Structures are given as C-alpha cells and as structure tokens.
Amino acid sequence: MHIRFATPADAAQLTSLAAITMREAFGPPYNPAELVDEYISSAITLPQIDAELTDSNATFFVLETTDNKLVGYAKLRRQTPPRRMPAPYRRKGMSIEIQRIYLLQSQIGQGQGRLLMQHCLDWARQQGYAAVWLGVWERNERALAFYYRYGFERFGFHYFQFGSERQRDFWLYKPLTTYFMPQS
C-alpha cells in the first residue's frame, strides 16, 4: 500500500470509490439506500469529482495497492473554519479541514485508516497548519472513536444536508503543534 496525491486522471476511479465507500459507511442499516443514492447522485458524480480534483483549495490523497487499485482516499480543503472553533485556529491559514477520509469496508481494521490519517496530519503539519478540523455524523460511532483516539476534540455541531434529510454532524478539531500517535 502507498499514498499519493490524486490527479484528474484518477477522477473516474475516485468517483467509483467514493460512491462505494459512501454506501458502505452510510447505507443500511444506518440510512435507507434511497437516501444514500439521492446524496450520491448529487454530490459524487464524475463532473463533481473532476471539478474537486482541479480546485486549488482542495488536496486529495489516494491509498492504493501495489497493483494500482484505489482502496481509500482523503480530501483536505482550505476554507474558513467554523466560528465555534477555538480562536487561535480560526485565523486564515491556521487550520485546514479534512473534508473526507474513507476506506473500502474490506480495508477497515487493517491499519489503513491510521496510515491515511497520519499522512493527512503529517502533510498538514508540513504545510504549516496549526490544526485540522472535520465534521462527522453524530451517529457514526466508529468514526467518532477513531477520531477521539487521534486526539480530536469536539467543539460544536452543524447540520449537513444528506440527500433530502438534514443530519447533525459534530465539529472536531486537533491541534498539530505536538506529534501524536494513537494507541492501537
């Protein structure tokens, strides 16, 4: 396994991976399949992913096998953090959002998530960011436990439009001023 920057040439494979991981993470029994499909049809399309890959405020990493099969990805996005984020990290350029981090279900529990998260944190630190932040669905207990093991802290919430349903996401942040490796 190795991690690399995604390029526009990855758009089709990344779109497919994003749709599969979205269904695996949020489909039944967590949400009705129709709701997940509704979200995917508006947010995870080839034109949408292609546009995101060329967005100067976005950075994508892909996790791939030795035979070049994508099994996970992360998207970091430079944008203004939420107002409730601790003040030192709200200044422009001080923090970056981990907007997406997903693995195929078959890869979960094998250390691939830790590998991808650590890569994101190391890259953000190398770019001079003082913190990362993210939103996570309040009912995604596996993801919440993963982020808490990494030292993320909750600082608020927002509502996320998932298809035709409004769901609540928790905002979490992690300072990057010290190196932190979670315990297994």
Automatic annotation (TrEMBL):
<dbReference type="InterPro" id="IPR016181">
    <property type="entry name" value="Acyl_CoA_acyltransferase"/>
</dbReference>
<dbReference type="InterPro" id="IPR050832">
    <property type="entry name" value="Bact_Acetyltransf"/>
</dbReference>
<feature type="domain" description="N-acetyltransferase">
    <location>
        <begin position="1"/>
        <end position="177"/>
    </location>
</feature>
<dbReference type="Pfam" id="PF00583">
    <property type="entry name" value="Acetyltransf_1"/>
</dbReference>
<keyword id="KW-0012">Acyltransferase</keyword>
<dbReference type="GO" id="GO:0016747">
    <property type="term" value="F:acyltransferase activity, transferring groups other than amino-acyl groups"/>
</dbReference>
<protein>
    <submittedName>
        <fullName>GCN5 family acetyltransferase</fullName>
    </submittedName>
</protein>
<keyword id="KW-0808">Transferase</keyword>
<dbReference type="InterPro" id="IPR000182">
    <property type="entry name" value="GNAT_dom"/>
</dbReference>
